[in-house]
Amino acid sequence: MVDQSGARSIASPPARPKAIGRLRLPVAAMAALTPAWLIILLVYLGTTVWTVQISLTKSRMLPSNEFAGLSQYQRLFGTARWSNSIENVLTFGVVYVLGAMVVGLLLAIAIDRRVRFESAWRTMFLYPYALSFIVTGLMWQWLMNPEIGIQATARAAGLGWFTFDWTTRSDMAIYAVALAGIWQSAGLVMVLMLAGLRGIDADLWRATRIEGIPMWRTYLTIVLPQLGPSVATAFMLLTMGAVRTFDLVVALTNGGPGQSTEVPAKFIMDSLFARQDLGLATAGATVMLFTVMAVTIPILYARDIWARRQNGRL
């Protein structure tokens, strides 16, 4: 620019903001997050460490600092009720996870075909997931009651041969619990799978139609392998839910008939409150903690590897 004397002058660049101004936002954000970090450290991490520490002591009704090594774990795995609960949760977990995955995927595929009233169908299938497991357990307890439930209704309609008394049979009760869990969780899987399906390029569908590839083969061999993150997320959530199952069992069967639906979480709660055996209960809780970690960490790692390969970074 030209000043009054006719000489050219170079305009000075605008002043940069001070470094202190740039630091205000991170400091304020960290100050706002401090209570949350304290809660995580003290409540979650602190109680987890305390639980593991108590499981290594001779605690009974009250906490004790007398070190006992792995004796509580030896007692735990030497208890027939704990072994039975492990078998039950494995049976429940396999049926529940696979059933919810298959039903949720089929629902997602059906809705992905752009059916009419799609929003209404999505809401209806997802609604059970909004219910608590207590509500689901009580509802299915009524439905499976031979005196007032589905069996009684069917027989009143003239179907005298129909039976649906799973909750009263020790060989079928765990499958009744799995059926109630599938009914509630299939909607969550549907939403996750539908999000993955909607992210697939439309050109892929056009190419399969041009090539004349059957629809079932397209989903099985082309589409499903691309749903890696959705499948991993759904599998992880369902597996964690299966390991921690407690309220659904209590509301539906209360661990019966006998101990046919006893699960580790119920064993731990009974040991803690009914039998007042703190050391045994914390040992069971620690086993459950490391079981969940053993399941979730590999899944998260595999999902990250899959995402990196999809982005071309590996």
From TrEMBL:
InterPro entries according to UniProt: ABC_transporter_permease, MetI-like, MetI-like_sf
Domain ABC transmembrane type-1: 86-301
Transmembrane segments annotated in the record for this chain: 25-46, 89-111, 123-143, 172-197, 218-238, 278-301
Location of the protein in the cell: Cell membrane
Family statement: Belongs to the binding-protein-dependent transport system permease family.
Annotated protein name in UniProt: Sugar ABC transporter permease
Domain of life: Bacteria
Keywords: Cell membrane, Membrane, Transmembrane, Transmembrane helix, Transport
Membrane topology: Multi-pass membrane protein
SUPFAM superfamilies in alphabetical order: MetI-like (SSF161098)
